[in-house]
Amino acid sequence: MGIVIRQSFFTTVISYAGIVLGYINVLYLYPRFLDLEQIGLLRTILDFAILMAFFAQAGLATSIIRFYPRFVRDQTESQGFINLVLLIATGSYLIFLLVYFLFEEHFLGFFGENAELLAQYIHLALWLTFVVAISTLMESFARTQLKLAFPRLVNEIGIRFLQGVVVTLYFINIITFHQLLIASVLIYMLSLIIILVYLARIGLFRFSVSVIRIPKPMIREFAFFSIVSLVSTSVFMMIGRLDSLMVSALIDFKANAVYTTAFYMAAAIEVPRRAIAQVNSTLLARAFEKNDLTEVQSLYRKTSINQLIIGALLLIGLWANLHNIYALMPNGDAYRIGFNVVVIVGLAKLIDMTFGPNSEILAMSNYYWVNSLALIFLAPLIIALNYLLIPIYGIDGAAYGSCISILIFNIIKYIYIYAKFRQQPFTYKTIVVLLISGLSIALAYYLPVVDQPIVDLLYRSALITLVFSSLILLTKSSDEINTIVQQALIKVGVIKR
Hints:
Helices cover 82% and strands 0% of the residues. The chain is mainly α.
């Protein structure tokens, strides 16, 4: 678990720096410089591209992690494998384009009165789809060598910084809104180029036309795994991205601006999970390759409890300070109707974190197809829930749909993993952390409100963090967290070794 903690620390720091930049963009620059309809249109284009990118890359991102150790025996074969993946991905993207243009009229018709405006910019979303697909594959190659930090730096910090620059240029009338949308796509292209240069500098990428030869008995396994990963990854990405598109279609772009802003606030909770998952995927692949189920169980439980602790603290802190965040936002009253969305989506993220790395365990085991079977059931459930709940509850309905879908999905995976491996992520420490969370919620609820939002945010956050963290350390709920704190105190001379 030590390598997970170290690698996850760096990627988490980078991710949270990106979150800070993202918060500046989403909670200050966008509301101040763009109107609700412009924000909604921009988010619809970006969410469409990011969602469709997972279809376009044909499930290869996960296949890279699983099959790289098998197909690449030494560094000389690495580029041939990369070229093969890029060739398949390009062909997959062309098939995606063909399918899109065949059904373009039906897709745009889904957006009703907003279809005409979206149609003017859909070509940007199609270009961005390809860029995001290739960028995802390049990041997966970096993950095979545990080179996570720099690609995360580019994607989490670089992109968001440039997005802030672009929207500021629009505000000071240097570029038009049309040019802003084009620039938003160019930012992703630039990030892809930078990642390619980085991979070339560390010897993981070079320009060549060689393609690795996959042994015939393994072609079928590689193809089947990629298809299964395509289904599981793309459908899981529907949670959040599909919500955004359906809010735009069933309500309007303005409602989507509020929904995506609230969703982004809640998404900060799962940043540690994403960072840990990137390392866990590699370690689980190695463990299953050695048939080391003891290591799998260890990663399962440790990841679950650590993610629950971190996620609970973040969700409680976010919920307790939402009134301050909206008070500090430009045009905050227009976004305040997303309060419940933040809490509901945040709870969904916490549920997903608490169940641990169940998706990664299934993806790296011989039962990788179970994810896809569960998600094939889940995809129509997401759509049905959104169609049912959005007309009744508005943007809250989309949040309820996400939360219900994530809970059902995790229960299915939990049951299957226990049935096949006799492993489950929960211990008595899970109950302890939930009780500590309940006490912290009660504390946050009864804390007096200070008139100055910044002062209230700082004192409220400090007290909640102090009480929650102290109880976690005193109860020794996480061996890893206690060890890290103890080592930190030793280094600063507070306690002796």
